[in-house]
Write a structure and sequence with these properties.
CATH class of the largest domain: Alpha Beta
CATH superfamily of the largest domain: Spore Coat Polysaccharide Biosynthesis Protein SpsA, Chain A
Low-confidence stretches: none
Mean pLDDT: 95
Number of domains: 2
Structural class: alpha/beta
Helix content: 40-55%
Largest sheet: 9 strands, mixed
Order of helices and strands: EHEHEHEEHEEEEEHHEHHHHHHHH
Shape: globular
Number of helices: 14
Strand content: 15-25%
CATH topology of the largest domain: Spore Coat Polysaccharide Biosynthesis Protein SpsA, Chain A
Distance between the termini: 44 Å
Radius of gyration: 19 Å
Amino acid sequence: MRDPLVSFLVVNWNGEEFLEECLNSIAGQSYKNFEIIVVDNASTDHSRSLLQHRKDIQFILNDSNLGFGKANNQALTVGKGEFVAFINNDVVLDPHWLERMLDPLLHRKEAGMCAGKTLSYQQRDVIDNTGHLLYWDGLNRGRGRMQKDCGQFDSIHDALLPSGCASFHRVEMLQQIGYFDEEFYLYGDDTELGMRARLAGWECAFAPTAIAYHCYSASTAPYHPPKFFYVERNRLWVALKYFPVELLLLNPLFSFVRYVFHFIALIGHKGVSGEFAKNEPWWKLFALWFRAQISGWGAAPHFLRKRKSLNRKRFYQCFLPNRIGVKEIAFIP
């Protein structure tokens, strides 16, 4: 069997601190038939100098920050691989990551993407994600996040969809369903792409021995205000595009329940809201939430027009085994 070409795509914005370790981990893969393409979104640190001194990569230098999806779409037009790996600049790969991500897609033609086991860069026995789970209102969270890795996911061979921090896709699938939705800009774009693929009939494999280490949200800080805004807005856009009508009608109710639990977590200094409040005044959280609602629901007519014929049975077959509970959403940072 011939070795197919794989394109590694890395989007960078002011990632000087961790970019070189990321690229070195890609260059050191045991599977050797790959290319590396880096898109720099107008970094103001020394990232560009680092890129220009490397002979083992191709790079695109943008004049402004185009966001995650649009930058990856740029790279997709350049890449020549049959498979593509989207790698965040704050990720370090185990040397065997690529061969172990590639294997299930070579043997499962129905699988268009693959998730691996991503661990915390700082605590390497703690799980960052093993693919993503989805809440009833469209919010996503990493499966197993913050759990100690005791092999509890090692016998599982499927996921709902991969996390964009270290994901693997079949280019044939992307050509069929389309590339990233560039309107998302940051966060949730991997969920949107993954749900589009699942509803088009593609499966997502899970490779538990494909290990990556993620320095969680290192480019932007894990609990910074823009992230809160984009996550909250974009989860609604995912729901508007792909959730059945009955769940859209119930969306405010499911979100209200989640907000109640987030408020309890905020008071108890726990979860995402508690971490946010350590660095920002509590009222800013509510101001960002209000902005996200205005932006998200204001674009509802536009995103409803982007909906396509939805296979409800397929949606629930994908979603129900991979849904996340409200307590896990609210109380785990």
